[in-house]
């Protein structure tokens, strides 16, 4: 009888442990919403810079960093004209959207990361340089 109870107790423990290993794989948002939010963030940051309204956002560190990064990229790339090559990576915690922004002088790669609430947590814009330019740098 003790052996049966021991085996039964062991089986219950094993079943309980398999439930602990389950992770939530539900994406934080749809790809459509992630892309929409990221593209709107690019347009919004560009509008803030064009209107010279940066001071209104100095308490928001994510937006302040995005504006600074965008302005630095614009110095090298020139006026943006369109967004292309949009790709997203969405998991249960974050959504990251990578895109190419075509500008007057050169293109830039933009990455926008959002949390589970759809809030932008990171915005990075980097000019794209040729291999020769990278070698010089």
Task: Tell me about this structure.
By secondary structure, the chain is α+β, with helices and mostly antiparallel strands. Helices cover 45% and strands 26% of the residues. The protein has four helices and four strands. Strands 1-2-3-4 form a four-stranded antiparallel β-sheet. Strand 2 and strand 3 form a beta hairpin. The chain starts with a helix and ends with a helix.
Q: Which ranges are low-confidence, i.e. pLDDT below 50, for 5 or more consecutive residues?
A: none
Largest sheet: 4 strands, antiparallel
Q: Look at the structure and give the mean pLDDT.
A: 87
Strand-pairing-aware structural class: alpha+beta
Task: Describe the strand arrangement of the main beta sheet, using strand numbers.
Answer: 1-2-3-4
Tell how many strands the DSSP assignment holds.
4
| DSSP helix fraction | 40-55%
Radius of gyration: 23 Å
Question: What proportion of the residues form beta strands (DSSP E)?
Answer: 25-35%
Q: How far apart lie the N and C ends?
A: 77 Å
Strand and helix order: HHHEEEEH
Number of helices: 4
Overall morphology: elongated
